[in-house]
Amino acid sequence: MELRHLRYFDAVAETLNFTRAAERLHVTQSTLSHQIKQLEEELGTALFDRSGKHVRMTEAGEILRSHMTPALEKIDLGLQALRAPADTITASIRLGTTSSFNTRMVPGCVATLLNHYPSIQVTVEELAASTIIKRLGSGHLDLAVSYRPPEGSELWFEPLYNEELRLVVGIRHPLARRRRVRMAELHQVRMVLLGRQFLTRKLLDECFDQAGASPMVVAQLNSVAPMIELVRQTDLAGVIAETAVSQSADLRVIPLEDPTPIRTPGMLWHKGATRSPVLKHFAEIIRRAAGTAA
Known about the structure:
α5 (105-116) crosses α9 (277-293). Strands 7, 8, 9, 10, 11, 12 and 13 form a 7-stranded mixed sheet that branches. The protein is elongated and about 70 Å long. α5 (105-116) links the parallel β3 (92-97) and β4 (121-126). It has 9 helices and 14 strands. The chain is 41% helix and 23% strand. By secondary structure, it is of the alpha/beta class. The chain has 3 domains: 3-70, Winged helix-like DNA-binding domain superfamily/Winged helix DNA-binding domain (Arc Repressor Mutant, subunit A); 86-161 and 264-293, Periplasmic binding protein-like II (D-Maltodextrin-Binding Protein, domain 2), CATH 3.40.190.10; 163-262, D-Maltodextrin-Binding Protein, domain 2 (3-Layer(aba) Sandwich), CATH 3.40.190.290. The chain has helices at residues 3-15, 18-25, 29-43, 59-83, 105-116, 129-137, 199-211, 224-233, 277-293, and strands at 48-49, 56-57, 92-97, 121-126, 143-147, 155-159, 163-170, 181-182, 190-194, 216-221, 237-241, 251-257, 262-263, 265-270. 31% of the residues are buried.
């Protein structure tokens, strides 16, 4: 197996089209097909299903790509570093993210990227997860940090970590001194939550139903930062990812249980999109940040 085999595999995996992949690689389609066949023979398994009108990845192909993508991106970064100084590289990146990740994690990743590539431009859009899926599909976003898309989506999803949602209250709240709180204990508690259009809210509603609790939701917001500020200034409680809450003397962050709300954020991008070396570097920065947050 040689590096070119993996490059060819990656191109077909991104486009799911042998003709477009061959054009991108500047080789003939027959050459590309032959190289993929060589790789499949060496691995002893099919990587693509070519039986229908459209090319699809097999389970083995999905597994190979999930492990291979980070390695190829690091190789590209090393080659790029040798070829051009970082301050001469220009590019633009359009990132979509939900409000939870746009309070601390995403700004930190953008800062790291801009420190490395001062000449690039980054646009960050804070959106609901459903809107992110639509904008990735239409090509209006290059990359996103959000949640797993529905089955059958034309998007790649790379899980980053599992995180618990925590109860956040002010220091004078009746639950502030608790070490843990059961979801059932939030019955009729005055709360601020995200709106019902958010996947996180749907997860919380399922947990409340499971616990037989009906909180008194007196405020619904579409962003996490104002939720935290509202909790700070009132008697309201909120349920927020711990990674979105900065250390503060006037707030308490308390684990929830029975059940514990858990979600899995990840990176998303369109299966047919071409990712530049800078975008691949950005993805690696996000992976490192996620490793710290996990």
